[in-house]
Amino acid sequence: MSDFEARARKVLPPVLGHYTWLSIERGEGSWLVTTDGRRVLDMTCGIAVTAVGHSHPRVVKAVVDQAQRLMHISAGVAKYESSIALAEQLATITPRGLDTVFFGNSGAEAVEGAIKLCRQTTGREAIIAFRGGFHGRTVGAATLTTSKAQYRRGYGALLPEVYIAPYPYPLACALPEPHDAEACARHCFAELETMLEHEVPPEHVAAIVIEPVLGEGGYVAAPASFLRSLRELATKIGALLVFDEIQTGMGRTGAWFAAQKFGVTPDVITAAKALGGGLPLGAVISTRERMEKWRTGTHGSTFGGNPVSCASGLATLEVIRDENLVARAETIGAIMVEELAPLRSHPRLREIRRFGAMVAAEFDEKSVAKAAIAASLERDVLLITCGFHDQVVRFIPALNIGESDLRKGMRSFVEAARSAQVASPA
Ligand SMILES: Cc1ncc(COP(=O)(O)O)c(C=O)c1O
């Protein structure tokens, strides 16, 4: 154990899980430099955050300029340019009509805000979420989270009136094999309708909350037909459709928001992660009409939409737009899948999936995925897992990663996964 790790273990609580104990001195674009001078290719973006790479000069300049002028006043006390400008810019890239933004500090906080918005403005209580979803670790968001039971373990009674329906994840579908994604989606939607017949009356439902692409749950995209059915159902029963785009938003999927790629407009979007460009920032985004119904003073935040976070978010959005990175998400996604092709013969591989620049390799069990990412790190490529059992390796490079770095990183992973295959017999 290094000195650094020993110091860290002494002052940090064991509740924090960790993928590595790398000690990072600085980040430069897609590269991390450790305190002992090792250069590691970052294919995690700090869990889908640094979409324009580490310390992009335009983002750093915006942060420094803003910090020199004003670091904090609280949106409840006075207004400032960076938050208004960011909200204005967001309104130009969100799905039609979603033009009003409540800023918070994190993804979980955005989900909490969305729950409160939906409950208060519909006067209803029930929330429907989907098995395998991840929405955060605060108590309300954790109630909606079912990607792993561990996020709920030992926390006692969570939020009442939350109902969990199956997510259309073909490899984890209750339908007997063989079935395709559409058949799985039809099955899941029928289960949801059954839930409304037997467990929760439709007129009790305030919101249907879904990640259009499961993030922590395994990088699985719901079929567009399923999301369209949810849209129709929500409208029919008077509930609000909420897309949790905390991991999918800000260009990652090849559209500013996955909603646009699916052609389905929700009533509410939650955003965070890449939104702040590396500083803490979350947002609940909805229509003016809906937001007008959220009663003044019943929700708020001291730090939400902090001037520096908003300046960072604004500069990040401008870089994504000016460098055409939304379109590039498709290009790098395709490159990643191309480079993964030799892995198709890996006996422990179940599936390679891609939605824009969200790419995943699902193995048959956790030990294989973990061995593959450990062997990748030995080759100076940082990757992390996701999935119900950590059996999925996810690839989340910066949208502006250089093509040769990307190809090299993917080849190192393929080599690493092959060495792991030898190390972990079935
Ligand atoms: C889809 C989704 N929602 C919510 C969250 C929670 O965000 P945070 O960790 O910023 O609270 C995450 C984090 O991984 C996420 O992926």
Task: Count the DSSP helices.
Answer: 14
Oligomeric status of the shown chains? Answer: single chain
Main pleated-sheet profile? 7 strands, mixed
Q: What percent of residues are in strands?
A: 15-25%
Catalogue the ligands. pyridoxal-5'-phosphate
Number of domains: 2
Determine the N-to-C terminus distance.
31 Å
Per CATH, the class of the largest domain reads: Alpha Beta
Q: Going across the major beta sheet, what is the strand order?
A: 4-12-11-10-7-5-6
Structural class, from helix and strand content?
A: alpha/beta
The radius of gyration is 21 Å
Q: Report the strand count.
A: 17
- Could you list the spans in which at least 5 consecutive residues all have pLDDT below 50? none
* Helix content range: 25-40%
In CATH terms, the superfamily of the largest domain is: Type I PLP-dependent aspartate aminotransferase-like (Major domain)
Overall shape: globular
The CATH topology of the largest domain comes to Aspartate Aminotransferase, domain 2
Would you identify the CATH architecture of the largest domain?
Answer: 3-Layer(aba) Sandwich
Mean pLDDT: 97
